[in-house]
Design a protein that fits this description.
Length: about 325
């Protein structure tokens, strides 16, 4: 990936004025959003009563993929759902520059959202599953086996980092066993579609009855169950974490009930639900969260909020241990 040449506010304003044809007499305010580790630069540009997001990508291929995703989202067919699903509107794309309308709304709160919102989120994933993916977007395939290789490389550091946690060595040994299983036949039979890649509360915005999605930098062509697993894991973790920070004991039964509202609606919309693949993807997502929450396992993990993810990790491993005795280590 190329190194990103950091852009200043003046240059951003100049480019946005040019591509959107904003007259010089119009006042423009540029607010810097963040310098992401994924080498993306974001600015919110406001003029009149309108705000757009100008994104500069270090890698033109990543920019092209996000542009294709925005095109795909506005082409979705499903009129009933389109009344509540409001995809971001693309305004301009060329080379490393993508400009779209700012997405309005509040981040989804696991404790404040109602059951109907959870059902609508499941229907959005079903909409992705049902709509054909353009050939250009299909070229941006996500690879389970690349994920698997990366995770196997991280396992020694993970084992070392989580030594304060009882049973951590057995847990990561079990995870290695799950990863090392032959998944080709299983995955070969699964459908593929567009996936957001990081379908979770932080990337879901609610604006009254409208639902919007943001942050498509991990999106592409993959197994739709991956997004389902992502939401199930990260909804649970966000709900637990919010209560943890408030010093309140979480109502785990209520978390499970809300999660099941989402999963039941998704299951209702498909002919069959592959539980084993779903659990596999949940493990991948949890392990990825463990890696990033500990700075790539470079630091020793201390007890605290991080244990919430590790608890979910062991819980999913038990599911495999109970169904494949003698194959994976039993870390109960």
């Amino acid at each position: 990936m190329m190194e990103l040449r950091w852009l200043g506010v003046d240059e951003v304003e100049k480019r946005v004025r040019k591509v959107l044809k904003i007259p010089k007499d119009k006042k423009v305010a540029v607010k810097h959003a963040n310098f992401a580790k994924i080498k993306i630069q974001k600015f919110f540009v406001t003029f009149d009563s309108r705000t757009v997001l100008a994104t500069f990508f270090a890698d033109p291929e990543v920019a092209r993929r996000e542009s294709l995703i925005l095109d795909y989202l506005v082409s979705l067919k499903g009129l009933a759902l389109r009344k509540v699903f409001s995809p971001p509107k693309k305004l301009y794309f060329r080379s490393n520059l993508l400009i779209r309308e700012k997405v309005e709304g509040e981040i989804l709160s696991p404790w404040e959202c109602d059951d109907e919102t959870l059902r609508q989120l499941a229907r959005i994933l079903l909409l992705f599953r049902e709509n054909p993916v353009p050939e250009k977007l299909k070229k941006h395939r996500l690879s389970f086996f690349q994920m698997k290789r990366w995770m196997l490389r991280q396992l020694p550091q993970a084992t070392e980092a989580f030594t304060p946690f009882r049973g951590s060595r057995e847990a990561f040994a079990s995870f290695s066993g799950v990863l090392s299983a032959d998944w080709r036949r299983k995955l070969r039979g699964l459908p593929r579609s567009f996936v957001h890649g990081d379908f979770q509360p932080q990337n879901i915005l609610l604006n009254d009855s409208q639902i919007s999605l943001i942050d498509f930098d991990r999106g592409g062509y993959f197994y739709p169950l991956f997004d389902v697993a992502s939401f199930a894991v990260q909804f649970t973790h966000a709900a637990l974490l919010e209560r943890y920070h408030r010093g309140v004991k979480p109502d785990r039964r209520e978390i499970r009930r809300r999660r099941e509202v989402f999963l039941k609606e998704y299951r209702r919309g498909i002919a069959d639900f592959d539980e084993e693949a779903f659990r596999l993807f949940k493990l991948l997502i949890i392990f990825n969260g463990l890696a990033f929450s500990t700075a790539g396992f470079r630091k020793k993990v201390t007890r605290g909020a991080k244990h919430l993810l590790f608890g979910l990790f062991r819980q999913e491993l038990r599911w495999f241990a109970e169904r494949r005795p003698g194959v994976f280590a039993d870390n109960r």
